[in-house]
Amino acid sequence: MKIITLIILFAAYQMLAADDTNLVAAGDWSQPVATQNGPAIRGRLLICDTPNHASSDPKPDTAVYLELQEFASALRSVRVHCGLNRFTVPDDSPGLRCELRDSAGKLIPSSPGGFSGSEPGSYWVTLQPYCSARLRASVYGGGRLDDGGLAIYLCSSRAWWDVHPNKTNEYFLSGTFTAVAPTNTFGLQTGLPAIDSTNMDVWYGTLTLPRVKVPVKKP
Questions:
Q1: Cα separation of 209 and 211, whole Å?
Q2: Structure pTM?
Q3: What is the C-alpha separation between 157 and 159, in angstroms, rounded?
Q4: I need a labelling partner for 156 at 20 to 30 A (CA). Which of 1, 102, 112, 176 fits?
Q5: Using CA atoms, how far apart are residues 101 and 99, in angstroms rounded to an integer?
C-alpha cells in the first residue's frame, strides 16, 4: 500500500512539473519555519509568464510570485495571512519585502515608477498538507520591457525597478516574507494572535527567501 501511494504522489508531481510551462525563473526554497503549535511552511520567489486572459493583447504578463508550501511534520492544514498589499498600511507592517542586487552584491536602489493596472490584495490562504500556493506579488501592469528587460513593481515592498539588459551584469531578487494574524477585520492592525483551540492552525513568522535571477535578454 505504501509503495502504491508513493507511485501516485510521484505521478502527480510529474504531471505538475510537465504542465508548469509558464515558469521562467525560480529561487531555492527557504528553510521551513514552524510555530510553537506545529504549523510550518517554506517559501520561494518565482518569475512566471502568465497568459493575459483579461486582455485582447496576447503578450504574456511576466510577474514575480511568492510560492508558499505546507511543511509541517504532521498531516495538518495551515492558514497564512498574506499581506501583499502594503500601500495603505504602516511601513513596518508584515508582508513581502524584497531587494535587488547585481552580480557583485551591490544593492540596487528602488526608483519611482508608475503602472496602469491594479495591485494584488491581502488574503487568508489555506495550505492543505503537502500542498503549495502561488501568490502574485507584482502589480498588474509592468512586466516585459521593449528592450527585453523586466519591470519589477512590488506594492508589497513599495519597491520599483526597471531591470534593463546589460552585457556584463546580472541581477538577483531576494527578500523576506512575514505573516501574523490581523487583529481586526480589515487587517490594518497586526500583532501575534491569541492562540486557542480555534486558530492553532495559523502560521506566523518570517521566511528568508533565497535569491532568484531576474531573466533579461542580454543585448
A1: 7
A2: 0.80
A3: 5
A4: 102
A5: 7
Looking at this protein, which amino acid is placed at residue 115? F
* 3-state secondary structure (DSSP) of residue 5: helix
Mean of per-residue pLDDT scores for the chain: 78
In angstroms, rounded to a whole number, what is the distance separating the alpha carbons of residues 116 and 145? 14
Nearest residue to 116 via CA among 149, 81, 90, 153: 153
pLDDT in tens, 51-106: 766 666 667 788 899 999 999 888 888 999 888 876 555 566 778 999 999 999 99
What pairs with residue 69 in β-bridges?
Answer: 42, 132
Q: 87: closest CA among 112, 124, 120?
A: 120
Cell of 41: 511552511
H helical segments located in the chain: 2-19
Task: State how far the alpha carbon of 103 is from the alpha carbons of 143, 147, 157, 208, in Å.
Answer: 21, 20, 21, 19
In angstroms, rounded to a whole number, what is the distance separating the alpha carbons of residues 79 and 33? Answer: 14
Q: Which of 83, 64, 41 is nearest to 174 (CA)?
A: 64
Q: Which residue has the higher pLDDT, 210 or 95?
A: 210
* DSSP reduced 3-state for 75: coil
- Give the phi and the psi of residue 202 in degrees, each rounded to 5: -80, 130
